[in-house]
Design a protein that fits this description.
alpha+beta, globular, 10 helices, 17 strands, six-stranded mixed sheet
Length: 378
């Protein structure tokens, strides 16, 4: 995140409501007349205008709660011209159903094969146990951004590379890639400053995966830590590696199953975790899990998305299933975060919230789903 900017769903990473009476609404035939500011022109062909009555479960959702979340996220998204006017309207609106149906046109997302189903995974905010002082129990550091890490932004010289940044360090007169996970942990630089030490190496890895979390210190203080930066190395999942090595079976291929194995076999932890060279650095935060939009995430109402397809702040109606009981999830969310593994036309990470219960759902979620974006009317 800027806390969660690097947030990635657990399953993907390891492996690689109030009711309203349904009302008949006649869908209007609408065409996308021109490219929208934050959506690349090539992605517009993958959106199909639909009516609200064509979206299963839309009128049965708690749209008042959805409006509250949209209004909260408008604190940041209104800086985008696309949402400026509709965010102003949301300030004095109390009827969620009226607000969304009057001010937005829904579009179903399609992939390049004109199919309407993609993959929905989950993420959460973990709780770790730590100390400000290193000792025999608390020995795994949560680092701040290294002082010697250079971040080169190409946007001023190459606008087409606006989503790319180079992260490295200066050695002599050359900029070289920043240290990998294995290098950072085996030979930490003097340029690394520690926020706290935690007691479980695997939980720390999960914190890196999720991008933000809470640490309960041994003095009773609870601190929030959020994503600050990343070492620039490409993320690589560890699930397939563990499967191929015979460490886990297909039935154990979940966040919970892999954590269980690594906790029981600590001698294998470095071998497995270092398959992922990516490393995340943190900062202390005044608030809990914060998405890339810059607002505090709302459990079960915020999504991480591919921002090249869906602008942050966009209302997104999601149709998928609960990963445990397989009951339908049909509800209006707001895109407020991004993730390194969240790429594609129909792809999202469902934020389940904080703690062990949220982990139970996030760690097992890899469901098919449909997505509809609600585009503000001009």
């Amino acid at each position: 995140m800027k806390s969660l900017i690097f947030i990635i769903s657990l399953t993907t990473i390891f492996l690689f409501s109030g009711c309203a009476t349904k009302e008949k609404v006649v869908p209007q035939e609408q065409k996308i007349q021109e490219p929208f500011k934050d959506i690349p022109k090539e992605n517009l062909k993958n959106m199909q205008a639909v009516g609200f009555n064509e979206i299963e479960g839309f009128y049965n959702d708690d749209l008042a709660h959805a409006l509250d979340v949209f209004r909260k996220d408008c604190k940041k998204s209104k800086r985008n011209e696309l949402f400026k006017e509709v965010c102003q309207k949301a300030e004095n609106e109390t009827d969620g159903r009226r607000f969304f149906t009057i001010n937005f046109q829904p579009y179903k997302l399609l992939d390049n094969n004109s199919l309407d189903e993609g993959t929905i995974t989950g993420y959460y905010e973990p709780l770790l146990y730590g100390s400000l002082q290193k000792n025999k129990r608390y020995k795994y550091p949560v680092y701040k951004t290294p002082k010697d890490m250079m971040i080169v932004d190409f946007v001023s010289a190459y606008p087409e590379l606006k989503t790319y940044k180079l992260r490295g360090k200066l050695v002599g007169n050359k900029v070289i890639p920043y240290d990998s996970r294995a290098q950072i942990e085996s030979n930490p630089s003097k340029n690394l400053e520690v926020i706290a030490y935690v007691d479980n190496k695997v939980d720390l890895f999960l914190l890196h995966v999720q991008g933000s979390g809470k640490i309960l210190l041994d003095n009773g203080e609870l601190i929030n830590v959020g994503y600050a930066e990343q070492n620039g190395r490409k993320f690589k999942g560890i699930g397939t590696y563990m499967l191929n090595k015979g460490y886990i079976s297909k039935d154990e291929l979940s966040a919970q199953g892999m954590k269980k194995y690594l906790d029981k076999n600590p001698s294998k932890a470095d071998e497995v975790l270092n398959q992922n060279e990516s490393y995340v650095f943190f900062h202390k935060s005044e608030q809990g899990a914060t998405g890339s939009l810059g607002t505090q995430l709302t459990a079960k109402r915020n999504l991480a998305v591919d921002r090249s397809v869906i602008p942050l702040g966009m209302p997104v109606f999601l149709s998928t299933k609960n990963p445990i009981d397989k009951k339908p999830i049909n509800q209006l969310m707001v895109a407020a975060d991004v993730g390194g593994a969240i790429k594609g036309d129909i792809r999202a990470d469902f934020f389940w919230g904080y703690g062990e219960d949220a982990f139970a759902y996030a760690g097992k979620m890899k469901e098919k789903g449909k997505m509809y974006i609600l585009m503000p009317k001009k």
